[in-house]
């Protein structure tokens, strides 16, 4: 293949990517546009004369919501790991027979529409008094990540050589001890992938937040944006600034952990 | 056994119990008061009958079908074209492919609100660009003719990364020598795609489309933020209908909402079992 031909492909690739990412660019552009210029015709294609008023409003009004989302995201990661890592180990190594049924249930669980889960949780939380609480939302959000986590851990851990665990057993380690000091360290990449997705899903959740935490004092950032849209449709720079800030975790993920992201998508869909 | 016990308890408490409550909601007549006091009247399948005979049902079913089928078909076509394009390793191809993941990683509410503003009738960038080509103002989100198309466009954009990633990894499993053999036989790129790539990718394609279908049936966020299912019921799908009955108005109607939700589960599971069946067959082969 000649050099000139590859160059041409790169140019086309850049063009496609730019087209695809235009909405993201537009979000940044609008977040920096002055309120007075928002309705300009033709619109301002570049933020030549930027305003940071939108971002100032984010720090004024949305900082607490960002904190809430962070707490919910981290809580969800913790809960997901605690439930799914040992279960994945058991399904992969300890009960290779009975595991099939549980794996099947988990696949089915992933197909249940979240609006249905939201209603079920609402009905339960009303009685328990868990509506508008952070932990209520952590539990609900974790239902998105737990089936994925168990399946991913099971897939990875069944690949760990049996000899490794035998060696630990010979040394007199209990099953728990083997899990802790042999299996978990070897599965570091899976732990990372599951944590990343659990965090991102909890951070991005809107359905559970808008149903289970509608009147809470501590609302996550997604709900912050939603309420913002409802309250002042004139300040689109502030809305888009909030959206841009809410996208930061996704950006970090992509830069720091790109290969885990692509790996996670395919693992969830194709491999067992 | 102690290792799976937490998972089993978790599944019972946070999957089985909410689902059970949902079925229970749909078989009783829950008024907001009965909801708190817990003394609803048992009505059997009345809620289901009401929902199905309601005038909104036909439209919601049609919208769900259009939204889902158009979304997954176009997502798949674009995703496949991009996967084939990125298969030729060229300078920067890895970086550019990674950038394509961005729409998928953003919180849905971020994407949905960005699209709302881009599709704004008077000040949206899309109408402004179309205007430059002499196309008059289109009321993307507020006219009954365009609302469903608008949310479908935004949803297609959201689904491209998923299709690209899965199809690209499927392409990696097609051995290079097949292409070399085809090239020796004088097949051009177009013929290579239809004779080699497409047939060999069929199992992966089936999985991608079915998973896409199951995900798309569930979509609430995008449509709710952009149009709330309106104007009227123009962009109301079954998921949106259920969400609106339960949470979207001042007066929650949990029982019909749960009935719609349960119908949705049945539809999702039918396709879900087709997916599981295909996968099992694949594993055996």
TrEMBL record, chain A:
Annotated membrane topology: Multi-pass membrane protein
ABC transmembrane type-1 domain span: 66-257
Ranges in coiled-coil conformation: none
Location in or out of the cell: Cell membrane
Keywords attached to this entry: Cell membrane, Membrane, Transmembrane, Transmembrane helix, Transport
Main localization of the protein described in the UniProt heading: membrane
UniProt keyword annotation of Nuclease present: no
SUPFAM superfamilies: MetI-like
Highest taxon listed in the record's lineage: Bacteria
Residue ranges crossing the lipid bilayer per the database entry: 7-28, 70-92, 104-125, 137-160, 181-203, 236-257
Pfam family of the protein (one): BPD_transp_1
Any one GO biological process: transmembrane transport
Family statement drawn from the similarity comment of this UniProt entry: Belongs to the binding-protein-dependent transport system permease family.
PANTHER family tied to this protein: INNER MEMBRANE ABC TRANSPORTER PERMEASE PROTEIN YCJP, MALTOSE TRANSPORT SYSTEM PERMEASE-RELATED
Stated name of the protein: Carbohydrate ABC transporter permease
């Amino acid at each position: 293949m000649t050099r000139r031909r590859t160059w041409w492909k790169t140019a086309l690739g850049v063009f496609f990517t730019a087209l695809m990412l235009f909405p993201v660019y537009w979000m940044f552009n609008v977040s920096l546009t002055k309120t007075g210029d928002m309705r300009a015709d033709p619109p301002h294609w570049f933020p030549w004369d930027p305003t940071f008023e939108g971002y100032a409003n984010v720090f004024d009004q949305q900082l607490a919501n960002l904190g809430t989302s962070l707490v919910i995201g981290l809580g969800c990661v913790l809960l997901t790991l605690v439930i799914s890592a040992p279960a994945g180990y058991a399904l992969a190594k300890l009960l290779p027979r009975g595991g099939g049924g549980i794996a099947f249930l988990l696949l089915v669980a992933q197909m249940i529409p979240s609006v249905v889960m939201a209603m079920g949780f609402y009905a339960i939380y009303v009685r328990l008094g868990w509506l508008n609480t952070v932990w209520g939302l952590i539990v609900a959000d974790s239902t998105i990540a737990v089936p994925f986590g168990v399946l991913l851990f099971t897939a990875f851990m069944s690949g760990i050589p049996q000899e490794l665990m035998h060696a630990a057993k010979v040394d007199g380690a209990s099953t728990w001890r083997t899990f802790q000091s042999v299996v978990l360290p070897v599965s570091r990449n899976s732990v990372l992938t599951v944590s990343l997705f659990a965090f991102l899903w909890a951070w991005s959740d809107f359905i559970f937040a808008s149903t289970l935490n509608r009147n809470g004092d501590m609302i996550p950032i997604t709900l912050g944006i939603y309420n913002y849209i409802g309250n002042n449709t004139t300040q689109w720079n502030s809305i888009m600034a909030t959206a841009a800030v809410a996208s930061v975790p996704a950006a970090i993920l992509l830069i720091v952990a790109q290969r885990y992201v692509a790996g996670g998508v395919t693992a969830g869909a194709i491999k067992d | 056994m102690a290792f799976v016990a937490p998972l089993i308890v978790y599944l019972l408490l946070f999957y089985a119990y909410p689902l059970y409550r949902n079925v229970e909601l749909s078989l009783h007549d829950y008024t907001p008061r009965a909801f708190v006091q817990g003394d609803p009247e048992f009505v059997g399948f009345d809620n289901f009958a009401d929902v199905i005979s309601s005038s909104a049902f036909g439209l919601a079913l049609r919208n769900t079908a259009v939204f889902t089928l158009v979304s997954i078909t176009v997502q798949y076509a674009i995703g496949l074209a991009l996967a084939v394009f990125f298969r030729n390793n060229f300078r920067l191809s890895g970086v550019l492919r990674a950038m394509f993941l961005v729409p998928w990683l953003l919180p849905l509410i971020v994407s949905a609100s960005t699209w709302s503003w881009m599709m704004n009738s008077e000040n949206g960038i899309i109408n402004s660009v179309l205007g430059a080509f002499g196309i008059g103002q289109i009321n993307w989100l507020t006219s009954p003719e365009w609302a469903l198309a608008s949310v479908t466009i935004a949803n297609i954009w959201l689904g491209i990364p998923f299709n690209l990633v899965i199809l690209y990894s499927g392409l990696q499993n097609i051995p290079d020598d097949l292409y070399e053999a085809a090239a020796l036989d004088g097949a051009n790129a177009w013929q290579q795609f239809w004779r080699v790539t497409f047939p060999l990718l069929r199992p992966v394609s089936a999985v991608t489309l079915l998973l896409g279908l199951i995900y798309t049936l569930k979509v609430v966020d995008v449509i709710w933020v952009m149009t709330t299912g309106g104007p009227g019921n123009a962009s109301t799908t079954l998921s949106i209908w259920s969400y609106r009955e339960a949470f979207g108005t001042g007066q929650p109607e949990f029982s019909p909402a749960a009935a719609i939700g349960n119908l949705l589960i049945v539809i999702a599971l039918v396709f879900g079992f087709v997916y599981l069946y295909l996968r099992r067959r694949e594993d055996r082969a």
